[in-house]
Specification:
The protein is of the alpha/beta class. Helices cover 56% and strands 17% of the residues. The chain contains seven helices and six strands, in the order βααβααβαβαββα. It is globular, with a radius of gyration of 14 Å.
């Protein structure tokens, strides 16, 4: 299955070892699913880690490399305007470009949408349960 994780999933996995978000990352690492990312998603992760969690350049670099090693990078060219929050639209663009089956998120506005075209939008708990 091809999956896109919203930024909040990555941040939770990186900040809270042993969390459900980390379990989701491990599912990808262990070959359970294919993770799709875009440059925008990686940039957003690094920005949040630097600004909100005061992570230094070396740590940020490691995060970027590690995400790159476990994922497939796509370059969305289509701009969508489905959500009010532009960062949510960038996540959706990544999913559409990468042919993802699901977006995993904790974002309530995205979860209310439930689906866009062929991409299901699910919670972390649903993902871990195999929805």
């Amino acid at each position: 299955m091809k999956v896109v994780f919203d930024t909040n999933i990555f941040i939770s996995a990186l900040i809270f070892p042993g969390s459900k978000a980390e379990e989701a990352i491990m599912r990808v690492i262990n070959g359970g699913d294919t993770l799709i990312v875009s440059r925008y998603i990686i940039d957003e992760i690094l920005t949040v880690l630097a600004r909100k969690f005061s992570k230094e350049a070396e740590a940020l670099s490691r995060v970027a490399v590690n995400i790159g090693e476990i994922s497939v990078m796509v370059n969305p060219t289509q701009k969508l305007k489905v959500f009010d929050d532009e960062s949510d639209n960038r996540i959706l663009e990544c999913a559409i470009t990468g042919g993802a089956d699901v977006i995993v998120t904790g974002d309530k506005a995205m979860l209310v949408q439930k689906k866009y075209q062929t991409v299901r939008i699910i919670s972390l708990n649903d993902y871990l349960r195999g929805f």
